[in-house]
Amino acid sequence: MIGVLEHKGQTLDGRDQDDAVLIPITTAQTKLFGTAFPGTVRFIITQARSDELMDDAQADLTQLLRARHRLADGAENDFTIRNLTAIAETAALSARAMGVMLGAIASVSLLVGGIGIMNIMLVSATERTREIGIRMAIGARRRDILLQFLLEAMLLCVIGGLLGALLGVSGAWLVNALAGMTVVVTGGSIALSFLFAAGIGVFFGFYPARQAALLKPVEALRHE
Questions:
Q1: For residue 111, which phi and psi values (nearest 5 degrees)?
Q2: Which of 28, 53, 147, 221 measures 20 to 30 Å from 188, CA to CA?
């Protein structure tokens, strides 16, 4: 049978699975690989029918190879069988650890940015105390002042999220162009980043907005 395999990409150790040719085992034994033992090959790759059968397949292969190599009971194996499931689990564990670390870094960044937003809004509320008093004097309610400052805090965070999204998309494009690696930026991830930015603005902007809304109109008008 002659044909072309489906695209698989790289293995966990960096080998390109698409840069491979499959030939009959007898051809490999007799014509391709030169070994000290005619009719042998250096390694064989097998595939189980499902993940649940991996352990059974490994046990059957071990028993078969011991019988073919005529190993006595109790003798050590003169071959090695590697189960790639363990390698995949290790890679998944490393990926999870990396995800947790990146999440911690992102959390610290959000905390620092949120504190910065809160400080900015506190200074803004202090500098605009007289403006707040005038608005209240002409009929603005406390919730109107609260909503105004919350919207301003949210707007600051959304603008920061927009700049961050532009930098992220530009960085992904540069990696694709210069390093030849495929980096995909989805619309869902961008939308999620804007939701987080808006949430940070509301959370850290609530205290300054509430402080501004609780000002008494008379005292606010007297502020210089």
A1: -65, -45
A2: 147
**Cα separation values, 112 from 40, 103, 121, 128, 161, Å:** 63, 14, 14, 24, 14
Neighbours of 26 (CB within 10 A): 9
- The verdict on residue 163 lying in a domain is yes
pLDDT digits (tens, 9 = 90+) for 113-157: 889 888 988 888 888 888 888 888 888 888 888 888 888 888 888
Go through the chain and tell me how many residues it has.
224
Q: What is the DSSP letter of 6?
A: P
User: Both ends of the chain: CA-CA distance in Å?
Assistant: 89
Is there a domain that residue 176 lies in? yes
Q: Structural domain of residue 206, as residue ranges?
A: 121-222
CB-count burial class (<10 Å; 0-12, 13-18, 19+) for 90: exposed
